[in-house]
Structure formats: structure tokens, C-alpha cells
Model the fold of this input.
Amino acid sequence: MARRITYQQAINEALAQEMERDPTVVVFGEDVRGGAGAPGEDDAWGGVLGVTKGLSPKFPDRVIDTPISESAYIGAAAGAAASGLRPVAELMFVDFLGVCLDQIFNQAAKFRYMFGGKAVTPMVIRAMYGAGIRAASQHSQALYPIFTHIPGLKVVAPSNPYDAKGLLIQSIRDDDPVIFLEHKVLYTVEGDVPEEAYAIPFGEANIVREGSDVTVVALGRMVPFAEQAAEELQREDGISCEVIDLRTTSPLDLETLLESVENTGRLVVVDESSPRCGLASDIVARVAQDAFGDLKAAPQMVTPPHTPVPFSPTLEDAYVPSPEKIAAAVREAAGAATAGAR
Amino acid sequence: MSTVAPPGTGQLTPEQLVEAYRVMRTIREFEERLHREFATGDIPGFVHLYAGEEAIAAGVIAHLGSDDYVASTHRGHGHAIAKGCDVKGMMAEIYGKITGLCKGKGGSMHIADFDKGMLGANGIVGGGPPLVCGVGLTAKVKGTDQVAVSFTGDGGSNQGTFLESLNLAGAWHLPVIFVVENNGYAESTSSNFHQSGIDVAKRADGFGMPGIIVDGFDFFAVHEAAGEAIERARSGGGPSLIECKVNRYFGHFEGDQQTYRGPNEVEDLRRTRDCLDAFARRVTDAGVLEREALAEIDASVKTLIDDAVREAKAAPDPTAADVLTDVYVKY
Done:
């Protein structure tokens, strides 16, 4: 039975249902409970933005606050996973990977391969990502390309509440290390979400809007932006966009992209991460290599500029890809660009 | 912080003493042989030898069961042998063969066997301490009496991961033991230079846990200190730190010319501080074991290592297709 809940509630529900189902699922991170050891109330925060609120009263021994020691507790997630738990460690802001990356990419990600296929490390690292709340350069990045670059990790970034629940459940049940990235601007977005638990498989992109002229590939918050642009383009220019939500960047559903490009011959990739060695350039390169003959126009990439994320609202709004920038790129790809449109 | 007084042969049974000696001799023979084989050019990559420090791996791991865990270092052969990893599989791994413990994917720096509670040698200095915190959490959540031990060098003791892990283990009251093998060198840099505060064990005070210094050449001292710490952890008493003062017989890695060493430093160590000699003297002087029994162990270990090297050399390499396997459980 579906009802409308927010992206944030969908994540909370996925955690609660998996903890209920599986006693080896543990949740830990900075302030996931909030107030531990303090004289006031327990579960005071339930995560810095309240995403895990209400879990600790239900599972008091399995929702655990940590010191501000990302290396230690992210590494502990790897050790716990190696020894029989299914930890969901919260990194809070993904920007903090800078103080624990070794434990992710040199330890957890490589265990299975380095150790000859015997190791299983079923861990999830949840983290907020993305610009849009004026959080400035160290709390706003979209760092999924860094994780996607690393063999051994799976990387997930849901664009809506339904996907958030289903992909998080899959992440927890998955036997490999998973980076689960939550766009903080999407937390309050509502959508239809079934009450029962369900898992969405990785590596299956979602065609959120069918179209015939231009393939628009997006992820996370860029998906609703792309949909908005597609609506406007259909209405104002008569351009039919096929919008594809990647859902996961590793594994990547290249097949669905190639099929779409085979039909449209035109590709626009919308990517909130930095442009160099990023998701957009990766996808354009893959499509160019595998489907060059299908392309009728140069693929377009809509990304932020190669700068840190700025603070001031005017600057941040100028930084982030917008529906307008996406529409302009689609017009370029469709050969319908007008002077000054870009 | 306190210091363990030199004990006798303690409460150890003759069987336990035989096993301890066998472990130490196996490590020594393994490492001495690798030293010679490496010089022939047959062994690929980096190899870091543990010879000289055998009393620590043997003394600590003697208290662990197969469901207890250790996280090791780049100098990890000794911990792996003591934890029960297959010696022939280890040798084949170091030669990069498909018959290796990690099918030739890991090599010396990544020997691991989770089924034996060996979380891996580790190419990253300070990589292991956070991992054992996770094992400690597993034991707490599942309500078992498992413990986990991280081995770290003096170099690793200056990593943030080590210090963060001391704090996390203390804050979460985890059944974890941090063993620091202070061999006096972080690669080529002396602990006299790289350590602020020469005793790592004193750092335990700041994290509210017991810290103890032991002679890392003395199996019995290590065994006694580790026994107390591990028993405390098993019974819910929380983490401990044990600093073992020791030295290594070889360089940081094989090929290291060791020009940073003092004159006759290693020769003097081998003559005066050798853990196997000291162990043999102690048990024979006490009349618990005979010299002949130790010699038999020496001979059987030599045969084992000879066989391991011969089989490793003869074993097939992985195939190019193996590059692609075992990245994920499912992708």
C-alpha cells in the first residue's frame, strides 16, 4: 500500500525495516542517535538532519553514536562487516571522506580482490551530498565520481523517495561495500512509497520519461531538473527528451543508455560533480566509443564549472546545473540552439 | 602503565610450550628462507620480514581461538603463521601463484584468511586498528566473548587511525587489544626521532585504558601481558595497549641496505637478544623440554619450509583471465 512520504522518511523506513528483519544490521555514525551520554534527552537529533530519528528507541543497542573520528568508525564498519555484521555507517556529509578515504578505498573496497575472493564485506556508507543549501565548499560536493572510480565499491544516488527506500534496502542486503549518497535538497521531497519492504536491483537505470529526439542522462537531484527541462522543451520547442535516471553509477547500466542513444542519436549528460574526470565525461566517452555510429550530434555535458562549490546564494545558484542550462544543452544537441541560448 | 617482571615458564603446559616454539621457529625459518630466496630475484614485489619479533606474534596469538581476529601490518607473515594461516599457501602467495592463499592477488602485504580470523597483512601503515574496532563491535552486538587484536608498529602508532581507534575502543568499551611492536624504526627513521614521547604505552593513559611495556624478545613476558589483557577484554573489561620493545633482524624491506643501523647492531641483537635462543634456554634450564625435542621441531619446520618453497616455485601462475575475477561478490 503506497502513501506519500518524504525522501528522508523513506530512508528512515528502509533502515527500520531492515533492522527489524535482520538483527545483524547496525547503524552508527556521528549523532545518528544524538545526545548519547548527555544530560538531556536521548535520540535528541537522530542524525544531524534527523534522518535516523526514532530508530534508537526501537533498536537501542544497534543505533550507536560515534566520536568524531571518521577513519576509526568507517574502518570499524569494514571490520564489523568482515566479522559478521551488516553495518550502515553514516559519514554525515560526503565531503568528510577526505578524513577516512583510506579505510574505504584501500581497505573495504579491496578486501575481496586482494584476499583472493574469500572475503565478504557487506557494509553501507550513507552520506549526504550535493549543493543547494548554502553549505559552502566543504559541505556541498557531489563526490560520486571518486567512489565510482574505485573497483570494489558500488555507488548509489537515488533521485526520489521510492528509489531511496528500495535502493537502500538493496544496499543493506548487498554483500559488497556500497556508498549510498543522499541529496540533502531532496530530503523534503514527497513521493509514493509502498509501506512494505522492497529492493531495487543495482545497475538498472530508470527511464523516467520516454522520448525520441534527445537522450538526457541524470542522477540524483539532476533527475527532477532534467524532467523539468524536458517538459519545457516539449512544450516550447517540440523536442522530445528521453530522461534516464542512472540510479547507480557503479554498476552502470550502459545498455539502457546505448539503446536510448540508438533511438535518439543525441546525448546530454547532466552531472552535479566537477567536470574533469567526472561522470559526464565518463558516460560520453563510453557512448562515443560504443555507439559512435549512432550519434547525430556531439554529446553535451551539463556540469558545474571546475571550481569549489561557492557559498553565496547567487554564486551557488550560478554554479549548479539548472533546468535552463539543461534545456540549452538539449537544444544544442538537437541542432536547435538559438543565439545566446547558452 | 606498568612493566611485567620476567617470569619463569609460567603456567604453560609442555604442549603449549612446544606449540609456541614451533610457531616461533616456523616464522623464523619462513623469514630467513625468504631473505635468501628474495636475493635470487625469484620473488616479485615488496617483502617485509618479521624475523627477530617472533615472540610477540607467538606470545599474543597463543591466547586466541580461531574465531578471534587479528589485523596485521605490512610485516605480517609472523602474525599470519601464528594465527594458523596455511604456510604453504602463504609461500605460494608470496611467489604470486594461483595456489596462494589469495590466489596471487595479494602477495606478501595482503596475506589474509578471514576463516582463520586473519583480517590481513596491510599495505597501509595504521590500516588495521580501525578494523579490529569493528570486530569488537560485532562481538558486543552478537554477545560473544570474541576479542580482536591489532598489531601496529612504532611507525603506525603515529597514525591518526591508531589514536582514533584507541579512543573509539575506549568510548565503546570494546574487547580489543592494541599491540605495538616498537622495533625502533619507522622504515628508516628511528623512533628516537619520530616519536614524541618514547613510550607508546603511555598514550594509553590518555585514553583511559591500561598500557603496559614488555620486552618483545621475551616470549614469556609477552604471553603473560597479553593473557591479562585478553582475559580482561573477554570478560567485558575493555581495551588495552601493550607495547613490545623489540628490533628486527632485517631491513624495512628486502633490499634495504640498512645504512641507518649502528655498527654490529643486528649481529649483537642476534647474539644477545634472540627470542628463540632465550626461549630454548628457559625451557631446557627449567627441565620442561629437552634440547632434542626442540631440535626435532627445528628439523620438521625446515622440511615444511623446504616443501613450501619447492611447491610454490613449481605451482602455476594465475592466468590473465584471473585479473577480472573476485572484484565483487555480484556485479
